[in-house]
Design brief:
Strand order of the largest sheet: 2-1-3-12-4
Distance between the termini: 54 Å
CATH class of the largest domain: Alpha Beta
CATH superfamily of the largest domain: Periplasmic binding protein-like II
Helix content: 25-40%
Strand content: 15-25%
Order of helices and strands: HEHEHEHEEHEHHEHEHEEEEHH
Largest sheet: 5 strands, mixed
CATH architecture of the largest domain: 3-Layer(aba) Sandwich
Oligomer: single chain
Structural class: alpha/beta
Number of domains: 2
Number of helices: 11
Length: about 240
């Protein structure tokens, strides 16, 4: 019986040492978040349970008591607002990635190197995320206005609830082209179809902030995940999806 004691203690210790962390993830960051979660569990033993969706909807859920430990937002305004309103731990937020916007079509040879298709293309639908709640949608709106094409394109716009739905519109061909997150279409350094990476001078920086929510303040796995997000392993994944740091 004595020989079993160290094993039993080890099992009990492992049970208490490893924990889950509930992470609300902006839709554009779903791909890298999944890969980061796998590496996080390998290296720490903790498990990151991911939920993906729009940052605006997550905000509403969090202020109404949703059981998230961490928010990985698609902007920097929502985490700042949560902190001001007392829903997150003061001083915990930081920018984990800077997003990039791309005009994309699943079809080859649709989008040219200067995006002249927006002025002269014969397409029926251009997809964008809802600019009222989605930072990438707001960036798309800024871009069209900067290019002087917004008024002419208004009647052809189709609006996705979030950037994931917007990407789906284009991927399925329901919209011939659309403004999506670069991270959604960049695979192993390549982009299928045709595309134009929007110059960053045409839209406000898409700073994506992480925040430790009140529910996660005593969760060691939550603190560990936020630290892991700053590690070289996580940063390499983030860069590989086309984000800046």
């Amino acid at each position: 019986m004595k020989s079993l004691l160290p094993i039993l203690l080890l099992v009990l210790y492992s049970h208490h040492a490893h924990a889950d962390v509930q992470v609300a993830v902006a839709a554009n960051f779903a791909g890298p978040a999944q890969r980061i979660a796998v590496e996080f569990e390998k290296q720490t033993g903790h498990k990151a349970v991911l939920a993906t969706g729009s940052t605006g909807k997550f905000y509403a859920q969090i202020i109404n008591g949703a059981p998230f430990d961490i928010l990985l937002a698609a902007d920097d305004e929502t985490p700042a607002r949560l902190e001001r309103e007392g829903h997150s731990v003061a001083g915990s937020r930081y920018t984990y990635a800077i997003g990039k916007l791309v005009l994309w079509s699943a079809r080859p040879a649709i989008i040219d190197a200067k995006a002249e298709v927006l002025k002269h293309g014969s397409f029926n639908h251009l997809a964008i995320a809802n600019p009222k709640v989605a930072p990438y949608g707001a960036a798309a709106l800024e871009t069209m206005k900067a290019l002087g094409v917004y008024e002419a394109l208004q009647s052809r716009l189709v609006t996705g609830e979030n950037i994931a739905q917007t990407h789906q519109f284009v991927a399925t061909g329901n919209a011939m082209l659309g403004f999506v997150a670069l991270s959604q279409v960049l695979k192993d350094g390549r982009i299928e179809g045709s595309y134009w990476i929007v110059p960053e001078k045409l839209y406000s920086p898409i700073r994506q902030d992480a925040a430790l929510l009140n529910k996660g303040k005593d969760n060691k796995a939550a603190a560990s995940f936020l630290e892991f997000l700053k590690s070289k392993a996580a940063r390499d994944i983030i860069l590989g999806y086309g984000y800046s740091l």
